[in-house]
Design goal:
Elements lengths: L2 E7 L15 E2 L2 E2 H10 L5 E6 L3 H7 L7 E4 L7 H9 L8 E6 L7 H15 L6 E6 L2 E2 L3 E4 L3 H6 L7 H6 L4 E5 L12 H7 L2
Parallel strand pairs: 1-4, 1-6, 4-5, 7-10
Antiparallel strand pairs: 2-3, 6-9, 7-8, 7-9
Length: 199
């Protein structure tokens, strides 16, 4: 089952202050490259990195990566939805599922991505059009995997907040992957979060 990951690396990083959080040091790498290394070690067949803010700097640190596709979103100031839609424009026709992943979640390991992928593959045997999301009681996590059917809905969505409303519209197809793994629920948005998780 061919799976595509759209890795979002286009945001303005406004809550981090003057720094672009994706370029901050993290375990001898940057936040973005640490995230991408783990994705590359997972069972994802296709990775599309969507750039936007500080395109040149972001794409410079991606030069050492092979087997990824870089797609620039020149509408990145319009919000996360525009970056998702930008990535969807170049996904493989073979893909059966699309993982929407965030570039600022370096705590996630390859096995965490693989567990989500495993749940998606199992769900596809029972449910025609599943959406898989890690959850813990009332906490909602990332990434999310959509069955290919939802590409049209994602492309037509007019909101700015990513894919939340698309999930809500199809909540009968949402399958919770219950998890106590904190990495699914921790992105790095602020200086205090960065100081806490960078070690």
């Amino acid at each position: 089952m061919h799976l595509t990951c759209i890795l979002l690396a286009a945001g303005l990083s406004q809550r981090m202050g003057t720094a672009n959080k994706l370029l901050l040091p993290y375990q001898h790498q940057t936040i973005l490259t640490a995230t991408l290394h783990q994705l590359q070690q997972s069972q994802i067949e296709e990775i599309i990195v969507v750039t936007g803010f500080e395109q040149a700097k972001i794409e410079k640190i991606l030069e050492d990566f092979t087997n990824i596709q870089i797609k620039h979103n020149d509408q990145y100031t319009k919000g996360m939805t525009s970056s998702i839609q930008c990535g969807l424009q170049v996904i493989s026709s073979q893909t059966k599922g699309i993982m929407i992943a965030l570039g600022d979640m370096p705590l996630l390991q390859a096995e965490d991505y693989n567990l989500l992928i495993q749940h998606f593959r199992q769900a596809c045997q029972k449910e025609a059009f599943p959406i898989i999301r890690p959850m813990n009681e009332k906490q909602i996590g990332h990434p999310v995997i959509f069955q290919q059917k939802y590409v049209k809905d994602l492309l037509q969505y007019k909101g700015k907040n990513g894919c939340k409303a698309v999930i809500t519209a199809h909540k009968s197809h949402l399958i919770r992957m219950e998890s106590q793994q904190p990495a699914y629920f921790r992105d790095i948005d602020t200086p205090s979060e960065y100081q806490k998780w960078k070690q």
